[in-house]
Amino acid sequence: MADEIKAAGKIKAAGKKIRLGQAVRQVTVDAGLLPKAAGAAGSSASASAGAKPAEGTARINVVSPVTPSVLAMRKSMKLQTAKAQVAKVTAAIDAGSVPADEAKALVLAHLAKIAGTSTAAEKLYRSQHLDAFGGRTPAQLVRAGELRALLVHLSAAMPAAKA
């Protein structure tokens, strides 16, 4: 079995990509046990690997499941990446270096949460006059570079919209 795990790097999976840390083993099974689509894929995969199984058999890859510790580590890494991205966007907003198209997309995402649809959010973005900003629309505020203040205002308006 150890030799089979070491050889896992040489096995090419038909279909899904094999992740690092997963033991892979190729086995030969009766082709009648496999669904037709998988049986056809298994026989073509074995033909490409160079080993020709006997008639009525198919070679398939058996991949071991990922351990819980690996899943926990992946979840932690995803969370850390998300926090880093939020920090990066927040720093860009504070510095005023967010490009206009990204600023518009960010405001539209907030407005879509309030309005419910992207079409309504687009209408609000272009035509909703905000009293807190002297009657200017969100589009005018984004062009003026007041993204931070607009996002704070929209964040404060979101719980009222959900109630």
In terms of topology, how is this protein built?
Elements lengths: L1 H5 L17 E7 L5 H14 L7 E7 L4 H28 L4 H16 L2 H10 L10 H7 L2 H16 L1
Antiparallel strand pairs: 1-2
Overall mean confidence score, pLDDT: 75
How far the N terminus sits from the C terminus, by CA atoms, comes to: 59 Å
Number of helices: 7
The tally of strands reads 2
Main sheet strand line-up: 1-2
Describe the structure concisely.
This protein has 163 residues and is mainly alpha-helical.
Describe the structure.
It is elongated and about 80 Å long. The chain folds into two domains: 2-63, no CATH class; 70-162, no CATH class. The protein is mostly helical. 14% of the residues are buried. Strands 1-2 form a two-stranded antiparallel sheet. It has seven helices and two strands, in the order H-E-H-E-H-H-H-H-H.
What attributes characterize this protein structure?
163 residues, 2 domains, mainly alpha, two-stranded antiparallel sheet, 59% helix, 7 helices, 9% strand
